[in-house]
Amino acid sequence: MKVIDTHCDALLKLQHAKRNAYKPEQLLDYRNSEKLDTNLVRLQQGEVAVQFYAIFINPDVPSDEKWQHALEQIDLFYTEVIEKNPEVKHIRRWQDLESLKVGEIGAVLALEGADAFGNDLAKLRTLYRLGMLSMGMTWNNANLCADGAGEPRGGGLTLLGKEVVKLNNEHHVFTDVSHSTVKGFWDIIELSDYPIATHSNARAICDHPRNLYDDQVKGMFEKNGLIHVVYNPPFIKADSKEATISDLLKHIDHLCALGGVKQIGFGSDFDGISTFVTGLENAAKYQNLIEALLKHYSEDEVKGFAYQNFLDHRPGLYV
């Protein structure tokens, strides 16, 4: 069964390898590098039909270098992921999903945190032109748009952040709540036409700041938003670096109980996590999750989780 995955950090791994390489053979081959959870071969083995690729800038990067880091990752997206692999097609508009052929993989460019552009909206508009279709306002730290989930202050969107959400709406771009504070989450819900949690779980099952409270979950579903479950064990099972597929299914069960059977999807966080769900260690293992779900849900429901719910709620439907 084909799969849509709304979060991975392969671009960051590709960038780190390039910046640290002294010889060409030290670069990562996107097609088959064992160091990449979402290399092309593994995506094919797991039947991943669409993969989101996050641009992520480490908070330690000086402010005047963040834009350069973002451009480097975008360049790697084009040169290593798209141009060297004819099977991979850049999804520049949501309508492009309709033209994917059997055996092709759609690649979606996303931004994890507004740090990349600071308060320079010309840079943001450049990201739209380069094909960015999903944007998280923050990572865990604060920036000029909002506080992140790890910021003790717990603030919401700034005036700049609110302007950015409105620009996302105009460009039919998802606004991602996955690293938001609770206040920031509700600010986004109020303003966003296209809210999504690209990689978050249920806080009622695992009380972690990166997960969503039940009222947030219900707010997402009422706003026609999507929640894509994440495979990082500390977000699945409290105080644990180990988790099973059965543990992950508890989150899906809970989200369904809150009315989300038509609004749940997958957001692995592969290449951004260092511990893994047993049996779901990389993109090649995706069908293990599908098989487990089919034991508990109907085929139509599982198809929804895997890809159809996303297709039914993507911004392109409302253009």
UniProtKB/TrEMBL annotation:
UniProt record, GO biological process: proteolysis
Gene3D superfamilies to which the protein is assigned, alphabetical: Metal-dependent hydrolases
GO MF assignments: metallodipeptidase activity
InterPro entries: Metal_Hydrolase, Pept_M19
Protein name: Membrane dipeptidase
Cross-referenced Pfam families: Peptidase_M19 (PF01244)
